[in-house]
Specification:
Helix content is 51%, strand content 7%. It is α+β, with helices and mostly antiparallel strands and 649 residues long.
């Protein structure tokens, strides 16, 4: 790949997309394993400029200037409570607009680069109600009420962000906090005591309205609720409101420490499964600047001899740098107090290790690109555990009431445990399984003649394949490039079961267009972050209301996350016109031990139910290209590739 021009799959585009599915998967999985998505490096530079230029530098200017602080005097404000409060609020606002995570080409948004607000501010677009039994929350289309609640949420967050903070004169708890910091007997570090009088807290009234609007819009539409990353930011925002007004500012800081550790430990717990080792090779493969190709290939068992199962290096990365570090380092940060176990030096080293952990994730540019979230957590780790040392009265044992630490962890702990036991009831985001490899996900198998029916669905964007063609690529090259995401998906455990299901139950699968559901979902609702519950039968039914597919035209293989150490995953076969037509399960062990392209055929599937309507499915696809994309002669294709390169320049 070059700086301006992407690396296209190293094959004739039309010949590649007409290969049988298994041969195509073998090629695509090896291409991804060595090169990743192949996006031009300027895309990665764009993300870095957005992260460090817009979010970090621009955010620091916004946060300090709106709080009447001197942005150039970093030493005076880096531990000021209002700074990290506003950074949290700002990041939540950007997520809710759709310009933080799940943004840009690496999230399947080629043009426009943003989904989010373009969808959620328009009545008539698809919404997904989490609890249809709650009165006045049903329906599959967004209304004026939903748009009002959404804008109310955005406005409330913006008000909290732009309003100047509360001073000690406004808030007795802040005055007590300042007295604590400036009392020499308390042994508080100089960087806190010297600047304590300038410390401020964010205005809580607009935050109260933001929470109310978010809960109301969330009851009507789980898309916006989860897109705002409520599992990461809602509870801290509640801390910003409750602790300074009802208890102590010190309690708020300690609560944020506990919450930060709970998130990391919960995520580490989610990695204790058979799936996680398979995440590492495709994740590292997408890194544009490091490691070298030979090291990427070494994460597989035997890349050159076509064994693309994770190798010893991948297992080491996953279970040492991943699971063990994410469990032990945060607990060290939280519970080491005084001089025990190396004291603050050990806490600082553990903190820097977790900062490095966040930067490692940033460096891989993971699909859905949650870069701002990782940088925010890195910054908060430094502020909370180095800026506010445990030994200075900011440990988990120093809260003003003994029940407080348990109250802080109650909700996230419940969501992690219950979500692991019943993944069908809790979003994998809320149960902190973002990187654990144990996901609900899906693949779409669509008849080439019928894909244009998706254009009937009201939304502000087109499908990704249309977005790529709008950039100047002819259909065969656009299709070949976009199918790289199938190579990415095939390297994860769930894909072996999903492709097995399609190979077993869809006779014309070699002639169908296969769409990775997370990307396809993005084009329908404006957001996805690996949440398979966004694109289950509920979304397919909402699409069908306008698309009107015939039986067999759009078939979806969908699978739920593995319940805690059950050893199997439960799948559904969904037809857009008929609904769920088959249910069953496969053993996780069979999936993780097979190659991505299933050279031994489909893994064993156990069907537990089949609808009588299954026989209504029609399998008539004969050419993956379809009538809407006439192949071009090779010389014209070369000219089109040259045109694409010229556009990139």
């Amino acid at each position: 790949m070059g700086y301006k021009v992407p690396r296209f799959p190293n094959a004739d585009p039309e010949e590649l997309i007409r290969r049988p599915l298994q041969k195509r998967l073998k090629f695509l999985s090896k291409e991804w394993g060595e090169w990743g998505f192949g996006a031009a490096r300027k895309i990665s530079v764009m993300y870095l400029a957005k992260l460090f230029g817009a979010w970090l530098i621009g955010g620091a200017l916004l946060v300090t200037l709106t709080s009447h602080l001197n942005p150039l005097d970093v030493g005076s404000w880096w531990t000021n409570p209002i700074v990290y409060q506003k950074f949290v609020v700002m990041t939540m606002l950007l997520e809710a607009i759709g310009i933080a995570g799940s943004w840009g080409p690496l999230a399947g948004k080629f043009g426009p680069l943003t989904g989010g607000i373009l969808f959620w501010s328009r009545p008539g677009t698809i919404k997904l109600s989490p609890y249809k039994w709650v009165p006045f929350t049903g329906g599959s289309r967004r209304t004026v009420v939903d748009v009002f609640l959404y804008y109310g949420f955005l406005f409330s967050l913006s008000a909290a962000l732009f309003l100047p903070g509360q001073s000690a004169a406004d808030l007795p708890a802040l005055e007590r906090f300042q007295r604590f910091l400036t009392d020499p007997a308390d042994g508080v570090p100089s960087w806190l005591s010297q600047n304590a009088e300038s410390f401020l807290l964010i205005q809580t009234t607009p935050l109260i309205f933001a929470v109310i609007f978010l809960v109301l819009v969330g009851l009507r539409d789980k898309i916006i609720f989860l897109a705002a990353r409520s599992e990461q930011y809602l509870l801290p925002v509640v801390f910003f409101i409750a602790f300074p007004n009802l208890f102590e500012v010190t309690d708020m800081i300690i609560a944020l420490k506990i919450f930060l550790v709970t998130v990391w430990v919960g995520a580490g717990f989610s990695k204790m499964n058979r799936h996680f080792s398979l995440v590492i090779p495709p994740m590292l493969a997408n890194t544009p600047f490091w490691p070298p190709r030979w090291l990427k290939k070494r994460t597989f068992k035997d890349f050159d001899n076509d064994d693309l199962r994770p190798g010893p290096l991948a297992h080491f990365f996953s279970h040492v740098f991943g699971t063990i570090v994410e469990l032990t380092a945060p607990l060290t940060m939280l519970f080491v107090v005084g001089t025990a176990f190396g004291g603050q030096t050990m806490v600082t080293l553990a903190t820097l290790l977790m900062v490095g952990f966040c930067f490692f994730i940033i460096s891989t540019f993971p699909v859905a690109v949650p870069l701002e979230w990782n940088l925010l957590f890195a910054i908060c780790a430094v502020i909370f555990f180095i800026g506010y040392p445990n030994s200075a009265g900011f440990s988990a044992f120093d809260m003003s009431e003994p029940w407080m630490p348990f109250a802080v962890i109650a909700i996230p702990l419940f969501l992690v445990i219950f979500g692991s036991i019943r993944p069908d009831k809790v979003s994998f985001l809320a149960s902190l399984r973002q990187y654990g490899g144990n996901w609900a996900t899906a693949l779409w198998a669509i008849h080439p003649d019928a894909e244009k029916k998706l254009h009937r669905v009201y939304r502000p964007t087109k499908d990704q394949i249309d977005q790529i063609q709008a950039m100047g690529l002819p259909y065969p090259l656009a299709e070949a490039f976009f199918e790289m995401v199938l190579g990415w998906r095939s390297l994860h455990s769930q894909a072996r079961g999903l492709f097995s299901l399609l190979l077993k139950e869809v006779p014309d699968i070699d002639h169908r267009r296969i769409r990775e559901a997370e990307f396809a979902c993005n084009a329908m609702i404006g957001f996805n972050f690996g949440e398979g519950h966004f694109h289950n039968e509920e979304l397919i039914a909402a699409i069908q209301e306008e698309a009107q597919f015939e039986p067999g035209e759009l078939i979806v293989a969908w699978v739920e996350s593995e319940a805690l150490w059950h050893g199997y995953q439960e799948y559904k076969l969904i037809d857009a016109a008929l609904g769920v037509v088959e249910r069953g399960r496969w053993q996780v062990k069979d999936a993780v031990e097979e190659q991505p392209w299933l050279p031994n055929g489909p893994i064993p599937l156990t069907m537990t139910w089949r609808s009588p309507d299954f026989n209504k499915l029609q399998f008539t696809a004969t050419d993956i290209v379809g009538p809407d994309a006439v192949p071009q002669p090779l010389d014209e294709l070369v000219e089109s590739e040259a045109h694409a390169e010229e556009m990139a320049r």
